[in-house]
Design goal:
Mean pLDDT: 75
Helix content: 10-25%
Shape: elongated
Low-confidence stretches: 1-9, 58-102
Largest sheet: 10 strands, antiparallel
Distance between the termini: 60 Å
Number of strands: 29
Amino acid sequence: MDRIAADPLPAARQASALEYWAHYKLMQATGLAQTLGGEERAVTALKAVGMAFERASIGAQARVPRMIPAAFDGTGLDAGMMGAGYGLVGGALTGSLLNGGLSESQIAEAARNGPIKFDGEGNSAQLDVAQDGMDTTLEQTVNENGVTGKVRTHIHIDACPDAEGKLTVTIETESRMGAGGKTGAVTLRYRQERFLDDDAHLLPLAEDGKVNGSEFFQIDMKGTGANGELSYYEDGGFGRDGQATGGTVKESGHSIFRPEEAAHTTKMVQGAQNLMRAFAQMMLQGSFGGGTAPWESGRCVDLKLRSSPEKRKGAKPDTHYTLFAEPRAKKDGAPTGGTVKATLTGAHALSPQDKVKADAQFDYQNPKEKDQSASIQFTARSKRGVGKGTLAFDTKKSGYRITATGDGACAEPITVCDITQPFTNTICDGAVTWTHTPTSDKGGDFTFRYAKSTGRGKGNAEAKGTYTLSGPEEKMTSIYQMGKICGHAAGMTVCTPPRTFGAMTWTQIDDCGE
């Protein structure tokens, strides 16, 4: 599979063998071969159309950003491809973008802005990107040796599993050829359903007699020409219960295949099916583009982390914490189940150290000494995928820079070394004094005083109230709820009703200047 991932073209050519054979039989049955001047010219035209499709597949990749790094240089009799090969190159394209080729921000932007489209001479490509999957559609029309050829492929892959852990890949390709009013079309459809186990590992499709997924393959051939309308249809597969599905074989009109060709046709069908199966698995596993499977990247699971108490930076040594790890599926917001593993780097004590069923709780004691730090890496694994996150702790002397407005009078930053203790700051050239008296990690009481004895704005005012802090401790927002504020100037006193004042931003800093 590594060889295919590095250069998918040879496998794509091999997958086209079934369609070469099917189109050749349609050429014979519809009279298209005779229209082109006989068997030899028909085969020459078939090869020319296949080569044109191959060149088009390379061009389509060149127009899509972040494509797989593959050197396509095939020429000669062993080159060229039809719909299946064109589709598998599209599958490599899809896999490379899905598995590391697009960042989280690019995925979000693509999902928000709708399909990415490319149009050129006789060809088009469309990529539909969503948080939980991707669809790729490629189309191409060529004219070679008196034959018009058209190929269309559509590929869908789930990036994130559903609640059962199911992931689905579908590959559908259609190739058409026509000349002189005689046409032939071959459609191949392949679907594979796979499942993750409770530890976010992709279960093998089948192993030791046990089936862990399902598969369906279909070939649909149609033609019109000297013998009227004709068709051939065959399907088959198996379900997750291991039982065969499909098994339908239908044929109408002039017979396309001779009885003695049945074994060869079956071999061609099995070969195409095997290659589509391999490509589907490689797309799911992240083989294309050198990335990891999308469900392992954090794309599918949001691991929500919190601690009690909330203050983790600049905390007192030997503080006891309860840590909460709650994985949620990004697709539907549901709890993922599975397990969470916590790994401590640094001091002091974390328990338990084994996997814990989600939603998970852990006990942690931060470093016993001052000026120490530690971090805990959390990894959640389940049928919904993998989620990761980190909580950082330290006992360093840090502080906050508070961006204050002075109620419109001025704007100056306030630096505070310890917001757990009462602090007073003077701003606005000494005219404004703020005193904060914390009553918890998330708020407290405050006093606001304004006093100016000369010049513009002469007078004084005072207000008291409470403040509340919200947001992560690295960057919090404060809202102030004042009682009435009274101002005194020119022998007059004016009071305003109680009101909400704010907001201010409290940004954590490593060095408070002391």
